[in-house]
Amino acid sequence: MAIDLVSKLCANCGTVVDFGAGPGLFLHTLGEARPDVTLIGHDRFMVPAFPEVKYAESLDSVASSSVDVFTAFEVCEHLYDHELDALLSDAARILKPNSAFVISVPIMYGLAIGPKVSNWMIRSRSLKSEYSPAELFKAMVGIRVSRPENPRTTHKGFDFRELRDVVSRHFVIDATQMSPLPIAPWWMSLQFFMICRPKSTA
């Protein structure tokens, strides 16, 4: 879904910057589909693995109004508030006027929360859950659950609706989409995608 979205949004010979790019697999795969695109990744914690992907040590080194599509896939849920504010400011600076900012985050509320918590317990080989039974029920019916102080290694309590509200103060949210089934309501979905546009072009 991410490859398809970005490939359609990016202009010919455009530039895509991926925040939290990891080793660069997304950009590498995008480059196979769109060899005309300039690929730039940024990740503070991972080493690049694909030579065709350029890496920026910081977004400060990316020129203003130079990017056609800026992506942040499955990273916003791990940011502190001040880091999210910095990310949104950087995005507004580096994006071209007719560009797109594409965000995806996990949905930690609704029917998906039970399987997600169970999967986490299986993968960590633990019978203990981050969620109390009361918190699990609240999350299942869409009631907000408090987040841990450190968001780096957990999705607990992350609410895509709060992120959507924050992003909407900085960008125009042009479209939203659920995954894996775009037509499903959010409470039956696993991921939430936003396609955002700079407000100056609204």
UniProtKB/TrEMBL annotation:
Q: State the organism's lineage.
A: Bacteria, Pseudomonadati, Pseudomonadota, Betaproteobacteria, Burkholderiales
Name of the protein this chain belongs to: Methyltransferase type 12
Q: Which InterPro entries match?
A: SAM-dependent_MTases_sf
Report which superkingdom the organism of origin falls in: Bacteria
